UniProtKB/TrEMBL annotation:
Stretches assigned to the Kinesin motor domain: 11-467
Family membership: Belongs to the TRAFAC class myosin-kinesin ATPase superfamily. Kinesin family.
Single GO MF annotation: microtubule binding
Top-rank taxon, per record: Eukaryota
Organism name: Glonium stellatum
One BP annotation, GO: microtubule-based movement
Protein keywords: ATP-binding, Coiled coil, Microtubule, Motor protein, Nucleotide-binding
Coiled-coil ranges from the UniProt annotation: 506-533, 607-634
Residues that coordinate or bind ATP: 105-112
A Pfam family matched in the record: Kinesin
Protein name (database record): Kinesin-like protein
């Protein structure tokens, strides 16, 4: 009945980390099996004594269980993060292979503590970055806008990303006087005050701590040397995004730091194949930051975390409701020959805490979020189970397309729909590096926390699971054990007529009852699980509906806004044209008036002298007088009536022409 850990060929190693409790005297529902003291792999959980309905004990297998006393460094060393990093770096002229490190756990179980650390303790992310920068130190390029390396890095990116040198990026968000020079020389330029871990973000200057105030421990002094490719030069490119309500959002837009893009609405990004990456899906259009030092990378990380807190979770700052992705792309090319950059990515995922919908006390969006989280974790669990079943010879299709989370985590681990299953045989050839490394999943749990939520997470994530029901204590078996101990089999045969036959029958019946009640227990458990799934599905359905409405509203708003801006632009254009026309008219009129005025002046200019004018008038007067005299004479010679008639008839003749006789 020993459930073996899944074969090592599976895509995930799953570690369980238990967090120390701060509740005194709380009942513990989770126990670690101490069969192998140094390397425990199994735990059992049993429902709290207050729960009278269930008595089933569930047993789970993990790659390894870390108990409460495990320190951050124990986890870092014990989960194989270092070999994962070496794989990403790609030793000896080989291309690196992608690596995934993820944490999963109920809210408050210590996910953030493990992956991101606390005020005083570094998390796995910071330690992994430290190892990366320490080991590539001498071979790391320092790209600035001016250097020739930067354009080549930007050109090598296949994901339609916008690349920025860290100094320029940080400068644009926080910098007043923090020039590139300031960052790279690590000069003590005045840095914003440390406050983000306290959650007080009053001004953008205070959003981010100084690198010197980031926790420094645990240090990595006693870490073995990490192998790097000595012939390579490296560049480290950081990007961050979150999956929230099944949509992908960039976390490095700077919207939380009050930069000029602050008011911009967050736009969801697509996970798709691009022109330069036709056979592989990537998150397209991210901002990517090329980091030249650990300090820069930590500042970028912190910037993304602030944005996740502010933009992502909105009012609910207590618990992370999105799946956070922190991607460290290691770009590499031959030091002397240069040649093309190749890239492999270490992705660190902080999966959202699962909560039962009924535990999310607020309604509306929160409930929908809880539904989405539960749903995506359920799909994640299905994928993990399926993929490890597949390793055992089954040929199930891993249903990773059901939500963004599993699509992001799995789609590049499995052959795409166009490739056939024979793809498996090609793993060792050609596109070998495309086959990601075995991923590390760290499940965190509080042994005295919420039983229901924790057991659900364990069911989703454990490598193997087994349900047992404690046997009903049997009176007859006790009696029988007494009789059989003496005579054994022979006594049983000879005693057919003796009371032992009745005992036997009774024992069988009791066993049957025990078996049946065990079955009932298991079925009840399954039913509970299915009910939870149904509820999660219903919640996600509602979430989808809400989302649809939201999208519709967004589209409407966008259309309206666009129409308004267009109308406004058109109005302005018209107004402009109208004014121009009016101006032109005015000018025209002015010119006309000018011309007129000039004309008048020309006529008036040769002002005639009064004597001349009098003379001229006199002459005119004389001529007119003569004309009058002549006309008078003429009039006296003709009768005025006759003359008028003649004139009229003549006119008629002229007008009507030949018609007149
Ligand atoms: N192994 C540990 N040792 C000491 N303190 C721990 C440990 N794990 C968790 N804690 C503390 O417990 C508290 C809750 O842990 P944490 O914030 O990491 O939970 P979480 O799982 O990330 O929750 P959420 O999903 O809400 O973010 C923190 O104050 C953290 O410092």
């Amino acid at each position: 009945m020993e459930p073996p850990p899944r074969p090592s060929a599976s895509l995930f190693d799953v570690y369980l980390r238990l967090r120390p409790s701060n509740v005194v005297g709380a009942e513990r529902f989770l126990d670690v099996e101490q069969s192998d003291q140094s390397n425990p792999t199994h735990i059992t959980i049993k429902p709290p004594s207050t729960d009278h309905r269930k008595r089933a004990v569930e047993r789970f297998a993990f790659t390894r269980v870390f108990e409460e006393d495990a320190a951050q460094l124990d986890i870092f060393k014990g989960t194989g993060v270092i070999p994962l990093i070496e794989g990403v770096l790609g030793v000896d002229g080989k291309e690196g292979r992608d690596g995934l490190l993820a944490t999963l756990g109920v809210t408050g179980s210590g996910k953030s503590h493990t992956i991101l650390g606390s005020k005083t303790q570094r998390g796995l992310t910071q330690m992994a970055l430290d190892v990366l920068f320490q080991s590539t130190n001498k071979q790391l390029v320092q790209p600035t806008y001016g250097s020739s390396v930067f354009p080549s890095l930007a050109a090598a990116d296949v994901s339609e990303a916008q690349l920025f040198p860290a100094a320029a990026f940080l400068d644009s968000l926080y910098g007043d006087n923090q020039s590139e020079r300031g960052f790279n020389s690590r000069a003590q330029t005045p840095m914003p005050e440390y406050s983000s871990f306290l959650g007080t973000t009053t001004t953008r200057q205070r959003n981010i701590p100084r690198p010197s105030t980031f926790p420094q421990s645990p240090t990595l002094q006693d870490i073995d040397v990490v192998h790097v490719d000595s012939n390579a030069e490296y560049a480290i490119v950081v990007s961050m995004y979150e999956v929230y309500n099944d949509r992908i959002f960039d976390l490095l837009t700077g919207s939380a730091t009050g930069s000029k893009n602050g008011a911009q609405k967050r736009r969801a990004l697509l996970f798709k194949s691009t022109e330069q990456s036709p056979d592989r899906k990537v998150v397209a259009g991210l901002k990517k930051i090329v980091c030249g030092s650990l300090e820069e990378a930590l500042m970028v990380l912190e910037t993304g975390l602030v944005e996740r807190r502010v933009a992502g979770t909105g009012s609910n700052a207590v618990s992370s409701r999105s799946h956070g992705f922190f991607c460290v792309e290691v770009k590499k090319r031959n030091k002397s020959r240069h040649g093309p950059w190749t890239a492999s990515t270490l992705t660190i995922v902080d999966l959202a805490g699962s909560e039962r919908a009924r535990h999310a006390k607020t309604a509306g969006a929160t409930l929908a979020e809880a539904g989405k989280i539960n749903e995506s974790l359920m799909y994640l669990g299905q994928c993990m189970q399926m993929q490890s079943d597949n390793q055992e010879g089954n040929k199930n299709i891993v249903p990773f397309r059901q939500c963004k989370l599993t699509e992001l985590l799995f789609s590049n681990s499995f052959p795409s729909s166009s490739a056939t299953t024979s793809h498996h045989h090609h793993y060792h050839h050609g596109s070998n590096h495309r086959n990601p490394q075995k991923a590390i999943m760290i499940v965190t749990a509080d042994p005295v926390g919420d039983f229901n939520a924790t057991s659900q997470i364990l069911r989703y994530s454990a490598l193997a699971r087994e349900v047992t029901v404690p046997r009903i204590p049997s009176v007859t078996s006790t009696i029988l054990s007494g009789t059989t101990a003496n005579g054994g089999k022979s006594q049983l045969i000879e005693g057919r007529t003796s009371p032992s036959a009745a005992y036997e029958e009774l024992e069988q019946a009791t066993q049957e009852i025990a078996r049946l009640s065990e079955e009932v227990e298991v079925l009840a458990l399954r039913l509970a699980e299915e009910t939870a799934r149904r509820k999660a599905a219903e919640a996600s359905w509602r979430a989808a509906e809400d989302h649809m409405l939201e999208v519709e509203q967004d589209v409407r708003d966008e259309c309206f806004a666009e129409m308004e801006t267009r109308i406004e632009a058109e109005r302005r254009r018209w107004k402009g044209a109208w004014e121009e026309e009016a101006d032109r008219n005015d000018e025209h009129m002015d010119r006309k008036i000018e011309v007129l005025v000039q004309g008048i002046q020309v006529h008036e200019d040769p002002e005639p002298s009064e004597a001349e004018r009098a003379e001229e008038l006199e002459r005119e007067n004389e001529a007119l007088r003569r004309k009058v005299e002549m006309l008078e004479r003429e009039a006296q010679m003709k009768s005025p009536i006759k003359k008028q008639r003649v004139l009229k008839s003549r006119k008629w003749e002229v007008d009507v022409g030949f018609e007149s006789p």
